[in-house]
Amino acid sequence: MQVQDKLLDGRRVAEDIRANVAKRVEALKERGIVPCLATILVGDDPASVTYVRMKRNTCERVGMNSRSVHLPEETTTEELIATIQELNADEAVDGILLQHPVPAHIDERAAFDAIDIDKDVDGVTTLGFGRAAFDLPGYRSCTPKAIVSIIDYYELPIEGKHAVVIGRSPILGKPVAIMLLNRNATVTICHSRTQGLPDIVRQADILVAAVGKPRFVQGSWLKPGAVVLDAGYNEGNVGDVDFESSLPIVSAITPVPGGVGPVTIATLLQQTAESAEKRATRSS
């Protein structure tokens, strides 16, 4: 099998999603509505500045409006929440994204939960997490939804498979585990206190790596034929999985870059378009 045959090309998946979103945006414009995503950046973290710019550029590519709110590093939790509430009240804004991480002195969870559930297109609120857990309608955390979208795009089975998730963050590890569980996978969540991690990973039909450590997962840990979704992005443009040692073992793997990342941003726009469509229905 050629290397190319094993790659889960996120750029290809993202292009498909963006094309669909662009059509939906055009239809909304014919009804007098232009979808708008508001991004909030607190401070000047270089990586966050880059991410916000990428999201703004992608909005423009599909014909959406983007609104950037840049707050100083010393912004308080109360000031940030007040900004979020202003955007909640703005009927021209369909989605709100608070770029994370925020400065350490800010209560990030309180800020996330200040976002109106109908504008939580990044899927970061506690209520949104609860809706995902119960498989109710709502906006999902974008990276977990991107991971499932990649699996579905390539028509890889989830039901009945053993999925192992390394990482338990509330916007990645936990929600992707829930989404896979809702699709009838058997799910094991691993984390920094897990003992015998390589042995657990070796049982995985589907592995999601979201641990934030470069090349952490080794090919020798993997079950032959496993499907690997690498949600890591570390310095040097490498993921959480050692790609070179894993490639001969797996049946399919996302590259870094060009895997989960592009689909995450496309998913954000997809959910913003959905929010705008709901606004159009309310105003009609």
For the biggest β-sheet, the strand order reads: 5-4-6-7-8
Number of helices: 11
Largest sheet: number of strands, sense, barrel closure: 5 strands, parallel
Please state the overall shape, judged from the principal axes of the Cα atoms: globular
Distance between the amino and carboxyl termini: 53 Å
Helix fraction bin: 40-55%
CATH topology of the largest domain: Rossmann fold
Walkthrough of the structure:
The protein is α/β, with parallel strands linked by helices. The protein has two domains: 31-116, 3-Layer(aba) Sandwich (Rossmann fold); 142-261, 3-Layer(aba) Sandwich (Rossmann fold). The protein is 43% helix and 13% strand. The protein has eleven helices and eight strands. It has helices at 3-6, 10-30, 46-61, 77-89, 108-113, 126-133, 142-153, 173-182, 197-201, 243-246, 260-283, and strands spanning 36-42, 65-71, 95-98, 162-166, 186-190, 206-209, 227-230, 252-253. The protein has a five-stranded parallel sheet with strand order 5-4-6-7-8. A three-stranded parallel sheet has the order 2-1-3, with helices on both faces. Helix 10 (243-246) links the parallel strand 7 and strand 8 (252-253). Helix 2 (10-30) packs parallel to helix 11 (260-283), helix 7 crosses helix 8 and helix 7 packs across helix 11 (260-283). The longest helix has 24 residues, at 260-283. The protein is globular. The protein starts with a helix and ends with a helix.
